[in-house]
Design brief:
Elements (H helix, E strand, L loop, with lengths): L5 E4 L3 H12 L5 E4 L17 E2 L6 H15 L2 E2 L2 E2 L1 E2 L3 E5 L2 H16 L5 E3 L1 H7 L10 E5 L3 E3 L1 H14 L3 E3 L4 E7 L5 E7 L2 E4 L2 E4 L5 H6 L8 E10 L16 E4 L4 E6 L2 E6 L15 H8 L9 E3 L2 H14 L8 E11 L6 E4 L6 E5 L3 H17 L22 H13 L23 H6 L2 E6 L2 E7 L24 H12 L2 E4 L4 E6 L3 H8 L11 E7 L5 E11 L2 E6 L2 H15 L11 E4 L4 E7 L3 H5 L17 E6 L2 E6 L8 E7 L3 H12 L5 E3 L1 H11 L33 H8 L4 E8 L11 E4 L2 E12 L4 E9 L8 E6 L2 E7 L10 H4 L1
Parallel strand pairs: 1-2, 1-15, 2-11, 7-17, 15-23, 26-36
Antiparallel strand pairs: 3-10, 4-5, 6-10, 7-9, 8-9, 12-13, 13-14, 16-19, 16-21, 17-18, 18-19, 20-21, 22-23, 24-25, 26-32, 27-30, 27-31, 28-29, 29-30, 32-35, 33-34, 34-35, 37-40, 37-42, 38-39, 38-41, 39-40, 41-42
Helix pairs in contact: 1-5, 1-9, 2-9, 12-17
The protein binds flavin-adenine dinucleotide and (6S)-5,6,7,8-tetrahydrofolate (THG).
Flavin-adenine dinucleotide (FAD) binds next to helix 1, strand 3, strand 16, strand 21 and helix 9.
Length: 832
């Protein structure tokens, strides 16, 4: 089994890792081409100082880093190690940073990596150059260290070569050939020295990626930005250091700096300067860079001339933090280029339009071997089992997020914010606003406080509801949870349970699946039976082949061949269209090719009208029966609300009686005004996402991407009820038979008695001091009068009444495993 013919473009740390991982899985018909020489190609990997800090708010990124560390630790080139495990130390010079380090330590514990907080004395013990007077403490991760990127490239090239992989140096890719006969797919890669036939092309071209992707018409949203890296001359205090590096790699995030030692010199990396973006088109290819090398100071295409002025503050700050550097000078420096993305995550996956064209882009050295493995699994097995890649998928973006202006603005902002302390709810403040629902003007009149979701401005709460605070006493949470929060959130939640509230649900992604064969197509992709009567609404899951949850969706059948899907994001659209493509080519399916999937989100809008008084508000406005029998729970129908044609679906993520009311964007404002007026006599309000999140957690409704992801199956996630094994075959079914019997961990509901102790998500959970799991989502439950935290825990601990602790900054918050749902377990509210 030699596998399909694969061409990897780029032999940096990513391309080399992928070649190694593919060939170790038996795919050996692999050719790696690079425009530069090997193994130092002249790309970003050739001059990365190689610091590997594993700490990351993303579990996936931490796991990719951990695998990279483990792999590189085991690699060498003729006895030269590829990884120097000197440890990593992040120091705090401000109280805010010290607090932040505690949060970061929590992430490490959650994701299973050892790391501990150390006092200022220990910082100096660990790194004797550090100025005791400047630091308040630090976070030490003993397994962090220095990746020797070029050696790692070389070691992985050797391993792959031994299995038959071809590496072609000084082969510049000029074009990619595709064949359009069966839908676009790649057929060959054109280099300066001829064509290489290919079934699969993987673009690992780093900062050149956008240029390569454009060869197949793909828009790759990344920006190469310059980042300053300087090296001191000899530092007298380090004289005689025989080993390359002995001190932990060091981060001084308060000043946007990091450090490593190299014999008696120090490398200084800086993010504090102005963003210096470069277009991928303006980056030289290797040959032209070499031609100009004689008369310019730019020896490699990914390196720009060091701009000393931009480094001035960095050097002053360095001399303060590491006083020994006052006896040295900055001897060399570069403005080196590497890729930034709009959300700081890599870009992995297959082009939505051209089959066989894959990318593995915007990857740091830190995650490189992990990404190599992830991509190899994905290519060979059709899905990746070792890592949950949903945050990294190149198809995660909404259309506006691919606009060059947007990409440039966000990428520059991410550069500026690399080391900033960012609250989990805080959206980037530019470019905003982008998408506004038809209700936006009214929401502003009600003094909404807006956060952002997929570009949509979304009310978190409405200051106009402040008078409600006279009715309830809302507990104030701790400082961190009190940011981007208002007591009005609590009042809105309680008002929803008591009377009725309008929720702007426009940001909920809506897809239309239509045509002969739509029902059969959806049956294949989902776990529940969606082939029911017109007017049915079904909550169901989509799984991948190994039974991991791809998404949870609602499927409303509006006609024989017409379905509306409530989805979680662009990845759902991608999943549908990808399978539709395969479906269209299945000869056994009559009319299969006529199914059409359309994103109707932008042209439509939705109000959730929920609460015990919802029916009293709606019925008088409607031309149709909205009584309990007139529209039962989880049924949909068309109706008119005043002058507005709507599709009404009776379901509620907040767990109250009511409907999602959909209409076209042009009628949105009229719908809002009609409902608003009718709701006033009942004390109706508009309520925001803060209340929404609290209410859904009281009801135990999971949120895809936060509570459960690709790495979880329905049974452990508490969603086994959405799987109907007797419905016939569907994607993931075979794997479920195996997984049902093997539930070792569970998404578990915890409650917290202390109303101030509101956690945020991603915190570690301890059992008597032993870390056993992590929190996914959390909020205060205003109706039940307790804090709520959902957490992944070993199954044996997920028993009601079990006392555990949540690690929150420097506290251990007592929590208890609870029976779920916490609110209305008999469903009397929803079915009434
Ligand atoms: P590259 O190493 O750039 O490889 C891409 C390859 O594609 C190149 O070899 C190029 O020649 C080839 N290629 C491009 N176009 C073509 C074509 N048309 N035909 C043929 N071949 C082509 N990361 C860390 O984790 N830790 C750090 O401390 C760190 N510090 C950094 C400091 C600096 C100054 C810089 C610049 C980067 C740093 N990074 C660091 C980031 C890291 O270096 C990159 O993210 C990583 O090396 C990217 O690897 P890659 O394989 O994707 O890209
Ligand atoms: N509304 C619509 N579509 C959606 C969501 C939504 N799709 C994405 C996301 N939200 C899906 N999440 C849920 C989660 C729970 C429920 C609905 C959507 C829900 N569950 C009930 C329960 O678990 O008791 C009913 C389940 C059943 O009867 O099968 O209501 O908010 N349109």
């Amino acid at each position: 089994m030699a596998g399909p013919r694969v061409v990897i473009i780029g032999a940096g740390v990513v391309g080399a890792a992928l070649a190694d991982e593919l060939s170790s899985r038996g795919w050996t018909e692999v050719t790696v081409v690079d425009q530069g020489p090997l193994p130092a190609t002249g790309g970003s990997s050739s001059h990365a100082p190689g610091l590997v800090f594993q700490t990351n708010p993303s579990k996936t990124m931490t796991e990719l880093a951990r695998y990279t560390v483990e792999k590189l630790c085991a690699l060498d080139v003729d006895g030269q190690p590829c990884f120097l495990q000197v440890g990593g130390l992040e120091v705090a010079t401000t109280p805010e940073r010290l607090t932040e380090l505690r949060r970061r330590q929590g992430w490490l514990t959650s994701w299973g990596i050892e790391g501990r907080l150390v006092g200022p004395e220990e910082c100096v013990d660990l790194h004797p150059l550090v100025n005791r007077e400047r630091v308040l403490g630090g976070l030490l991760v003993p397994t962090d260290g220095l990746a020797k990127a070029v050696l790692a490239v070389e070691a992985q090239i050797r391993a792959a070569t031994a299995r038959g992989v071809r590496f072609l140096a000084r082969h510049e890719v000029l074009d990619i050939r595709t064949d359009g006969e069966h839908g676009e797919r790649v057929t060959a890669v054109v280099t300066g020295q001829g064509e290489i036939p290919a079934d699969i092309v993987v673009c690992c071209a780093g900062i050149w990626g956008p240029k390569i992707a454009r060869m197949v018409g793909m828009n790759l949203p990344l920006t190469p930005l310059a980042h300053q890296l300087a090296w001191t001359g000899p530092v007298p205090a380090l004289a005689g250091q025989a080993e390359e590096a002995v001190r932990p790699i060091l981060r001084h995030q308060d000043a946007d700096l990091y450090y490593r030692d190299r014999f008696d010199r120090i490398g200084i990396g800086y993010y504090g300067h102005r963003p210096m973006p470069v277009s991928a088109d303006d980056i030289a290819s290797v040959d032209s860079a070499e031609d100009s090398a004689e008369d310019s100071a730019e020896p490699m295409p990914s390196v720009l001339r060091f701009t000393e002025d931009d480094f001035a503050d960095a050097w002053t700050e360095t001399q303060s933090l590491l006083p020994a550097t006052r006896d040295a000078k900055v001897e060399e420096g570069i403005n080196g280029l590497f890729s930034f993305t709009t959300d700081g995550m890599p870009l992995l996956g297959e082009s939505p339009d051209v089959k066989g064209f894959w990318v593995a882009e915007a990857v740091w050295v830190t995650h490189s071997a992990g990404v190599g493995r992830a991509m190899a699994e994905w290519l060979v097995d059709g899905h990746c089992s070792s890592f949950d890649l949903h945050e990294c998928d190149v198809n995660r973006f909404e259309p506006h997020q691919l606009a060059p202006d947007y990409v440039l603005a966000r990428d520059c902002q991410n550069f500026a914010e690399v080391y900033d302390i960012i609250h989990p709810l805080q959206p980037p403040d530019a470019p905003r606003p982008l998408r506004t629902s038809p209700f936006h003007v009214r929401e502003r009149e009600l003094n909404a406080f807006f956060l952002e979701a997929s570009g949509w401005e979304r009310p978190q709460w409405y200051s106009a509801n402040e008078p409600l605070l006279a009715r309830w006493s809302i507990p104030t949470p701790n400082d961190w949870a009190a940011q981007l929060w208002s007591p009005v959130v609590g009042a809105e939640a309680l008002a929803t349970r008591e009377s009725v509230a309008m929720y702007d649900m426009t940001a909920l992604k809506r897809l239309e699946v239509a045509g002969r064969g739509a029902a059969a197509f959806l049956q294949r992709l989902t776990t529940a039976n969606v082939d029911k009567s017109a007017g049915s609404v079904t909550y169901t899951l989509m799984l991948d082949e190994d039974g991991g949850i791809r998404s949870d969706i609602t499927v409303a059948r509006l006609g024989r061949d017409l379905f509306q899907v409530g989805a979680n994001g662009n990845l759902d659209l991608d999943w549908f269209t990808r399978h539709l493509h395969d479906w269209g080519h299945r000869p056994a399916v009559a009319g299969g090719g006529s199914v059409v999937v359309r994103d109707i989100t932008a042209g439509t809008c939705c109000i959730g009208l929920w609460g015990p008084k919802a029916r009293e508000v709606l019925q008088p406005l409607a031309d149709s029966d909205f009584s309990n029998n007139g529209l039962r729970y989880f049924r949909a129908k068309r109706a008119h609300i005043g002058a507005v044609p709507v599709t009404a679906m009776r379901l509620s993520y907040v767990g109250e009686l009511g409907w999602e009311l959909y209409t076209t964007a042009d009628m949105g404002l009229k719908l809002w005004d009609t409902l608003w007026e009718a709701a006033q006599p009942y004390g109706g309000i508009a309520a925001g996402r803060g209340a929404f999140n609290s209410l859904r957690l009281e009801k135990g409704y999971r949120s895809f991407g936060t509570d459960m992801t690709y790495e979880h199956d329905p049974y452990e996630a508490g969603l086994g009820f959405a799987v109907k094994m007797d419905k016939g075959d569907f994607i993931g079914r075979a794997a479920l038979e195996r997984r049902a019997a093997d539930v070792r961990r569970r998404l578990t509901c915890l409650t917290i008695d202390d109303p101030r102790a509101v956690v945020m998500g991603k915190e570690p959970v301890y059992d008597d001091g032993r870390p056993v799991g992590y929190v996914t989502s959390a909020a205060y439950g205003y109706t039940i009068g307790k804090g709520i935290a959902y957490a992944w825990l070993p199954a044996e601990l997920a028993t009601a009444g079990r006392a555990l602790q949540i690690g929150y900054f420097d506290q251990r918050v007592p929590a208890v495993v609870a029976e779920e749902p916490l609110f209305d377990p008999t469903m009397s509210r929803l079915r009434g």
